[in-house]
Write a structure and sequence with these properties.
By secondary structure, the protein is α+β, with helices and mostly antiparallel strands. It has 2 domains: 1-35; 45-157, Cupredoxins -  blue copper proteins (Immunoglobulin-like), CATH 2.60.40. The chain is 17% helix and 35% strand. The protein is built from 1 helix and 10 strands. The strands form 2 sheets. Strands 1, 2, 3, 5 and 8 form a 5-stranded mixed β-sheet that branches. Strand 2 and strand 3 (79-81) form a beta hairpin. The longest helix has 27 residues, at 5-31. The radius of gyration is 22 Å and the shape is elongated. It binds dinuclear copper ion. The site of dinuclear copper ion has 9 residues, from strand 6.
């Protein structure tokens, strides 16, 4: 089989790129242990109200951890509990959420906080809130007739 010179170069370039990409992915995964986040924490969604920390939803000051506050929030059709959250500006906040029924969204508009609230799973995300203001929390997963009304409010106060 005759291959044109440039065709050969192109094949070598393609093959080499593939090997480089696979090597980078392999080194990131196996050497640095970088994996996509996964919902490894599970919960019985029928007993959410009885299981800590969801038996006490709200904003909790914590000490001795890498973050200052834990925001525990339960999503269900078609509201969030609690409906309003207050955290001081500059604090490091860990959001811990779950759902009692179907899949809901948890997007803090204007920030990079955006998670799914899935029945049976606990979703967590830690971030620092460094700008004061009112942030609307919206459900961005279609969950039923009340989907568009499903919201909460995060107030970052000075
Ligand atoms: Cu909850 Cu859409």
């Amino acid at each position: 089989m005759h291959l044109h010179k440039y065709e050969k170069y192109w094949l070598i370039f393609g093959g080499a790129s593939l090997i480089v990409f696979l090597l980078i992915t392999g080194i990131m995964a196996f050497h640095y242990g970088s994996h996509p986040p996964s919902s490894i924490k599970t919960i019985n969604y029928e007993k959410v109200d009885d299981i800590a920390p969801f038996n006490n939803p709200g904003v909790h000051r914590v000490s001795g951890k890498d973050w200052d506050y834990e925001v525990v929030l339960v999503a269900s059709a078609f509201y969030y509990n609690p409906a309003e959250l207050h955290v001081p500006k500059g604090s490091k906040v860990k959001f811990i959420i779950t759902s009692k029924d179907v899949i809901h969204g948890f997007e803090v508009a204007g920030t990079n906080v955006n998670m799914m609230a899935e029945p049976g799973y606990i979703s967590e995300y830690t971030t620092t809130v460094d700008k004061a203001g009112d942030y609307l929390i919206v459900c961005n997963e279609y969950c039923g007739v009340g989907h568009a009304q499903m919201h909460s409010m995060l107030k970052v106060v000075d």
